[in-house]
Write a structure and sequence with these properties.
By secondary structure, the chain is α+β, with helices and mostly antiparallel strands. The chain is built from eight helices and five strands; from the N terminus they run H-H-H-H-H-H-H-E-E-E-E-E-H.
Length: about 180
């Protein structure tokens, strides 16, 4: 029989995999289930419920959860943007493993750029959401100097659509590039 620590480590690894590739792991319902299980295992259920309530109060979740709020802001459903919201929560709880140790100085300006330019500027991303196929949107996540996560959201043609950071008002946390505003 497996130990409690083995089961907790398994849940931790599954959450990290589901956040990075939500479509391959069952999407938002599975991510929420894994969060619930880890919160229970770590005796943080009340704190986790407070996080969920905070998502709703700042407009990052609605009746359709984070996927619904993302649709309201972007005008379409985006699993990588949804997953980045949960990555931010997992990061704050210590439930997220970063692939590299990178500290970016801040958010890029509002100019247009492409995925390769962001990687050249900041290095390999500690968090990569979505696959590597350029025909699909993706999100890169980097911790800034304070340790908070900054997300770069790319359109299918790998042009930067927006950057996002912070846990304030969800709609206001997006800084759209000209390409992103034109969508």
């Amino acid at each position: 029989m497996r130990s409690f620590d083995d089961l907790r480590d398994y849940l931790f690894d599954q959450l990290n995999a589901a956040i990075r590739r939500p479509g391959m792991h069952g999407g938002e319902p599975v991510i929420l289930t894994l969060f619930d299980a880890l919160a229970f295992a770590d005796s943080r259920t009340e704190r986790w419920q407070a996080e969920l309530e905070a998502l709703v109060s700042r407009g990052a979740a609605n009746a359709a959860m984070v996927t619904g709020a993302v649709h309201e802001v972007l005008g379409y459903r985006s699993e990588d943007v949804m997953a980045s919201v949960y990555a931010d929560l997992a990061h704050r709880h210590g439930w997220l493993t970063l692939d590299t140790d990178s500290r970016i100085p801040g958010v890029l300006g509002e100019g247009d750029c492409v995925l390769n330019e962001v990687i050249e500027e900041f290095g390999a991303p500690p968090l990569w959401f979505g696959g590597t196929n350029p025909a699909y949107p993706k999100t890169l996540g980097y911790p800034d100097r304070s340790g908070a996560l900054v997300f770069f959201h790319f359109m299918p043609e790998l042009r930067l659509m927006a950057t996002r950071r912070g846990d304030g008002d969800f709609r206001d946390s997006f800084l759209f590039t000209p390409a992103g505003r034109s969508r």
